[in-house]
Every structure is written in C-alpha cells, then in structure tokens.
Amino acid sequence: MSVQHVMELIDREAIAWIDFRFTDLLGRSHHITVPADEVDEETFAQGIAFDGSSLPGFCSIEESDMVMLPDPETAYIDPFTEHPTLIILCDILTPDGEVFDRDPRSIAKKAEQYLQATGIGTAAYFGPEMEFFVFDDVRYEYTQNSYMARVDSIEGHWNTGRQEEGGNLGFKVKHNGGYVPVQPVDSLHDLRSEISRLLIAAGLRVERHHHEVATAGQCEINFRYDTLVKSADNLMKYKYIVHNTARRRGKTATFMPKPIHGENGSGMHTHQSIFNGDQPLFYQKGGYGNMSELAMYYIGGILYHAPALTALTNPSTNSFKRLVPGYEAPVNLVFSKGNRSAAVRIPLAAVSPKGARIEFRTPDAAANPYLAFAAMLMAGLDGIKRKIDPRALGYGPVDKNIYELTPEEKAEICCIPASLEEALDQLEADHEFMLAGGVFSKSFLEHYIAIKREEARAVQTRIHPYEYALYYDC
C-alpha cells in the first residue's frame, strides 16, 4: 500500500485517528496517536518525534530525540477502538535521519538486505506457529511479605468440582488432554474464530485454528508464512488482536511460555526457507527429507549457534520452565524428518518443492520476532557460508523418539542452555555471526544482554513461594 493509498483509505473509511506504532527491544508495542487531519504525505517523509530515553535499552536522556518513520504497507484498521483508527507500523530513526541501530524492525530489514548481499538468495520466508493460553482470571502479586500467582479457566481440569457455574456443566479439558477436541470440551472455538476473522481483516492469511494440548485454554491459530519482516509485522498484529479480542469477551490471553506447572507450555515453532526469485533453495528430491545440501548447511548453522540463539528466541526466565529435558519442548540439538522431539524438524506431510522448509521448534512467543527471526537467519546463513554440516558435527539425523533413548544415547546429544543466564553467556561468547553485514551491532547486543541479565537477577534474588513448601520446617 502506497502513501497515496493510505490517504485514500483515511478519506474512504472516515478515519479519525492514526496510531503510529513501533516495537521496543523486549518485543512490546508502543504507540503515539495523531488526529487524521494532521497527517499528510509529508508525515510519511518526516516521521513523528518521540522520547527514546523512556524505553529500556534505547538511548540516554541527553540523546533522547527519536523519530518514528511510518511504513504505509503496514496500515490496517484497528478493530477495537471506539473512534475509527488506522494503525501504521514504523521504523525508528535518529534525528539526523540515520537508521537507529537498536531498532528491532530495522535490524530485521538489515538481515534481509544481508541475505541479498551474500548472493545466496533473494528472500527468506518465516512461518511462526503461535500458541497461547486464554484464562478467565489471572492474579499475581509480589510484595515484601506476599508472593503469589493464580490463573483459572472454566476449562481447567481442576474445576470439575467447582460450584460457581450455577451447577457444574462438566466437559473440562483433561490434564494435557486438550489436543483438538470438539465442543463443548473446546469452549474457545468461537473466540478463535473471531480472532481469526479479525486477523484476516488485518491482512493475515489464516490457515487454521484449534485447541492445543494443555488444559485451561491453550490455543493455536496459524497464519501463512511471509518474508522475514512481514512475518514479524504480522506477529505483532497477531498478538495485539489476540490480547484485545480475549479482553473484549471478558477473558485474558497470554503468550507467556509456561504459565501452568505440569502442562505443556506455549512455543513458537518457526518454519524457515530461502528462495532465489521463484526458485526454492531448500528442496532436493532424494536428499534426506528431500532437503538440499544448502538446507543442510542452514540447519548446521541453526544447531551450531542454537545455544546463543536461545538468548533471543527464548528470552525470558519463564522460557526455561518450558525448555526442560525429557518434557514436551525440544531441547535436543539434533535434526530429524517429521520428528517433533528434535530441535530442528524437517516437515514431510503435504510438502511440495516450494513448501520445503525446516522448523526450529525451540523458540517461544516471549521473543521479539524481529530480533529472533533476524538472528535465526544470520545463524543459518553462517552455516551456509562456512558449510557447517550438521551430520559431521553429531547433530543427527536422529530418527527415534529422543525422549525414549537410553541415558548413554542421550549423553551423546547436546542440549540448549538450562537458564536465561546460561543463554546470555553463550550469546556473549558466540555473536560474531550476528555482526556480519552490520545487521546486529556490538552496542545493541551489549545493551540487550545487560537488560536481560537484570531480569534474570530480579527473578533469582526473589523468594519463590515453593521455597516455603520445601524449607519452612527446616
């Protein structure tokens, strides 16, 4: 959509407000809203000023003037505002018009440009599979003398005996028994359909939706893959629409990776491929999983750099409550065809040459999509450039259920870091591949690591309620 088309859309839909948005280092959206009458073609050339010093990791107060530069191609009508509002995503520039090197969206753009500069291909495609929970109630508190968290869902298997329904209606989702049941066990079908309708109206191609494995409202809605930046843009739209549709219906949605102990967590399995024009580069008939050698090197780069990647693809302390060896999340640094217990899976079902791809199953939706997708692409490209063969390095293929291997067999398999702090250590030790082409900067990574270390320390130094169960009687 061009600037002219945006201006025509504003007139045609009687838009009253333009909501200019950008994404911070942590993956949260921020916005400044301007009357539509104050927006013209010059606005798209000059941008909108804002204070960058009020956001973690952006800039200090003496250099706080920043500019949001709107991208007209991202415009879509906000379905939640009382007054007609058009949302437009933005890049961040410095006051002198230079790209801000800590702007996540600009980093993602530079990753795309780097791919083209290498001559390997013209476009990288990403397709994230987003999982999330929908709760009816969430409460948490942390004070000096009180520490608690409580979530509830009418679907929760713990609610088979509750009386607050005016007579319990039954049909609860059993423990880890929520994979694609029909109504009335699946009580969220209509909510997902409504979310999907709004996603389509916002420009996403929704492919399907269903209930996921966990009890208490775990859902998945899949949208079609796109180029790196466009997929990250779509993911930001996705989160906004999921959060607000749930709230409109008196519920609350979260992409927190592991909100319930003992149930499957929520991941962001990320499908990836590279094309050169219309030519898919990952397909080779007769290869392992019909993968080309270039695809194998890409897999090698992902697995080789995975310990460092997790600092960006699984960037919360809660992420590592999901990434537990022997449980449902793939922590094993191996690849396999059709095997969901491997960190990298090669999909086999209903795959055409253009659909040939790899799936990195470790990430979760706590990630900033611009940073996570860019880092994964840089790791894969490093694998291609250096011809990192995953087979030669012991990364597989492993065509067995890894969870059922013997202890001796498991000892031969490397795992991702066990905590956010360990992942940050790995990123400090292994980040040169991200600096290629100026995609990520040293300054950015230093600020990112500092922010995330502070998060890790904040959790590590606070008292956990379960410590009372373990130690109060000592």
TrEMBL record:
GO molecular-function term, one example from the UniProt record: glutamine synthetase activity
Keywords: ATP-binding, Cytoplasm, Ligase, Magnesium, Metal-binding, Nucleotide-binding, Phosphoprotein
Record field: catalytic activity: L-glutamate + NH4(+) + ATP = L-glutamine + ADP + phosphate + H(+)
The protein's name in its UniProt record: Glutamine synthetase
Protein residues bound to L-glutamate: 264-265, 322, 328, 340, 361
Annotated binding of ATP, by residue: 207, 223-225, 271-273, 340, 354
EC number(s) given by UniProt: 6.3.1.2
InterPro entries xrefs: Gln_synt_N, Gln_synt_N_sf, Gln_synth/guanido_kin_cat_dom, Gln_synth_cat_dom, Gln_synth_gly_rich_site, Gln_synth_I, Gln_synth_N_conserv_site
Main location: cytoplasm
Domain GS beta-grasp, chain residue ranges per copy: 13-97
GO biological process: one example: nitrogen utilization
Residues where O-AMP-tyrosine is found: 403
Binding site for Mg(2+): 129, 131, 212, 220, 269, 359
Note accompanying the cofactor annotation: Binds 2 Mg(2+) ions per subunit.
GO cellular component: cytoplasm; membrane
Family: Belongs to the glutamine synthetase family.
Gene designation: glnA_2
Cofactor(s) it depends on: Mg(2+)
Residues in GS catalytic domain copies: 104-474
Compartments in which it is found: Cytoplasm
A Pfam family of this chain: Gln-synt_C
Subunit structure: Oligomer of 12 subunits arranged in the form of two hexagons.
